[in-house]
Amino acid sequence: MKDILFLPAVMMILASAVSCDGDYINPSAPDMVVEGWIEDGGYPVVILTQSVPISEEWDDVGDLNNYVIKWATVRVSCGTDTVTLTGKVDRDYFPPYIYTTGDSRVRGKAGGTYSLTADYKGFHATAVTTIPQSPPDIVSSRVEKCEGTDSLNRIVVSFTDNADEKNWYQFFVRRGTGTGQFFAAYLGSVDDAVVNGTADYTVYNRSDIREKEGSPYFKTGEEVAVRLSQVDSLSYLFWDDYTKTVSSSSNLFFAPYSSIRSNVTGAAGYWCGMNSRTVRLIINN
Prior knowledge:
- By secondary structure, the protein is mainly β.
- It is built from 2 helices and 21 strands.
- 7% of the residues lie in helices and 45% in strands.
């Protein structure tokens, strides 16, 4: 059975759109933000938050839990059955509150199509995703020392794309020895036009608002899990826009989401079907 996946607290990136008036920033009304995924062999996981308005006063990271939506009605349908997900505290995720189920009727299956609905007060969000038929084939992985430093490293993954059909991929990263959340790797979206057979791809670290200092590289001594997920075309558009927005924003945590394409209607965010491979490395160069 595959590890539980997990993704990046996108609420940090999907901050409310704002308008500037003199020296003041006027936040718009908050949106609901959906972070949801379902993987081949796994169960749906959904995190719901309200977008964080940008203001001149910054809350402590712990205060961001105030934006978590805990009393929504969240349902997933596989076409023949519909299951209501249960909300619960789970500290393996950030924010530490998820909606999920262990009902086998909506357990992810390659080739399956899954619909999501989320209702909370005046918000009503819907989305549809498909789990790709097969995961990518990771041929090899290696650690390379960054030039001019003894403590920073990059990871290079070689994988094969199926040239007979169009495929889309996203890299995710988890640091440490636990079984917690995976985060989208920096610049981790890959179109098979780039791969074209078997190719090497440099995997960068991910940004985490809980860390005061970040780096796109990995430190010597770390244990890192790298996940390569095949996703459908609509999910790829979200992740490609998301990673480009992060890379071009002057603030890696608060980038406007107005230009990020999404398969969710009625909210910001994503609902993503995945078929994945994972490799684990110890950075001991």
